[in-house]
Amino acid sequence: MSSRQSNLKTEYVRIEGVSKQFGSFSAVDNVSLSIYKGEIFCLLGGSGCGKTTLLRILAGFETPSVGRILIDGQDMTDTPPFKRPVNMMFQSYALFPHMSVEKNIAFGLEQEGIARNEVQRRVAEMLDIVKLSEFTRRKPHQLSGGQRQRVALARSLVKKPKLLLLDEPLAALDRKLREHTQFELINLQEQLGVTFIVVTHDQEEAMTLGSRIGVMNKGRIVQVGTPTEIYEYPNSCFVADFIGSVNMFKGKLIEDEPGYVRIACPELDVNVFVSHGISSAPDVGLNVAIRPEKIDMTRTAPMQKENFTQGIVKEIAYMGDISMYLVQIPSGKMVRVTIPNIERQVDERISWEESVYLSWQSSSPVVLSQ
Amino acid sequence: MRVRGLFRNSVLMLGFVFLYAPIVSMIFFSFNNSRLVTVWDAVNSPTLKWYVVLFKNEAILGAAWLSIKIAALSASGAVVLGTLAGLSLARFGKFRGRALLSVMITAPLVMPEVITGLSMLLLFVALEQLTGWPEGRGILTIIFAHITFSMAYVTVVVQSRLASFDCSLEEVALDLGARPVTVFWRITLPIIFPAVLSGWLLAFTLSWDDVVISQFVSGPGSTTLPMIVYSKVRLGVSPDINALASVMLLIVALCVVLSTYYIKRIEQRRVAEALMVRSEEL
Q1: What part of A 223-242 touches B (C-beta under 8 Å)?
Q2: Measured distance CA(B60)–CA(B204) in Å, rounded
Q3: What is the model's pTM?
Q4: pLDDT, tens digit, for every residue of A291-331?
Q5: Which CATH architecture group holds B70-220+249-273?
Q6: B272 contacts in A (CB within 8 Å)?
Q7: What angle do the packed helices B98-110 and B58-91 form, to 10 degrees?
């Protein structure tokens, strides 16, 4: 953790007003970003949001229609990929099928004209780091998915790039292996001090890997922040909805004080009291977002005077560690609530068609204007 | 069920007979002792007499050697040009004139050989009158003509292989610091090599058994093996032609088997790769 924080704030990559048009479609739309030395920056977004295009612009496979790319202070906008101090790991891994593991990893070093024994030494060192020393002579098709992923990683790291671009590095792995590899990636990154830019569509992956996350939508960066900032303080309905799940209620400001606000939510039947001020014009339609895990569900009425409503349990999804409940409130809207399964006895848990109280802290709702 | 099976098998047999009876009878009669091609001399057959006659015939051996040289050279030329054409069609996106190039390159596939041959002849004659080159018709003009029409086949084979080529392999090589030329020699070519090789074998066979185009553009001293066969047959079929044709058939069959084997290997690898990717997605 220490290196993840100590290196913060030294700008290494700067993306300046970059746009990329494919015909009339703009894949990347006026993106400006600073990426700091030694961090893992995750570009998160759904498919077609332009995250991969942005990564390919950084690698040099696409030239931006507008804007500049600076790496370590140098303008790299028109530098071809083979002259950039950047390496990329592809989603498909793109291992050379006709070369052994060893040759695959050595390929990049050979291009630099490094002496043969030095190449061998560095390849062996890299194979040791990714724990593939036994597989040097294997061909890619003789490896498992996880092993291939590690070969691709070793190949892109062996040239000691200052910046590594990873396109969906874990997407092709199964769930167990993915969790394990996530931590391996983080350790490796700390060990080598390389700046990582990771493209992913998986929000869990972005939250675990990223020291910062940039959420993309329709070619634009909509929010940049640490995983906690993105999750707890989303700046738009899109981000709130995209990261995790959320209950969204339309509302209207009825009391606006610097220290608190009160919002009327017809969908919720009650007014929502929020214990912090917001900056919004009056009479503008607002959205109140409450995360499912921040709602308390009880059989008896809560002590608090505000911020609670009643409902009937309609659906229960048991997921082992938690259970998700869909509770119908009097307006007819379904509210999503997640409860950790702390007790083991099933009969004590709230069941179908039970009447329950839903309550939340006044600091929990996020008020969003868009 | 039984009747249907019988019907199916007999139709299959009929098909085989239709396709291969002439060839089999030709090979069969090449071991015939009789001077008359169509009369089987049961007493003294089978014999290798005609093969011995064949291998003592200097003219035929010379023509065979010439045919092999022409086929090898024109196949090599066709592979270089065809690979380049296939590469540009598959790689360089929608450049100006792409559709025209694609049509023009594959036109020889459907062009009647007589027309190709005639137009080649006219071109060479006109060129000689204008520039003094090529001096008369001969081996060189045959090679050029063969390259022209067999290149189309190579292009199609290479292009279809490149269509399923994972472009990120080339990109990753660029990313690792290889220049585009290095990428071609070390990544692209080794991977598409089976297609290139089967293209070469295809071009070799096409040149090896071509008679129509060769006849148009050949000159004195450049008589290829198929041309000899053709002229001998016109004088009446002698039994050594059967032997010669059998040997030629053997060479062609060898090329076809080899190229099929390579194409099959590409297919198998592609299927294996696809299966591997799918098993990981699950």
Answers
A1: none
A2: 19
A3: 0.81
A4: 999 999 999 888 888 899 999 999 999 998 899 999 999 99
A5: Orthogonal Bundle (1.10)
A6: 141
A7: 150
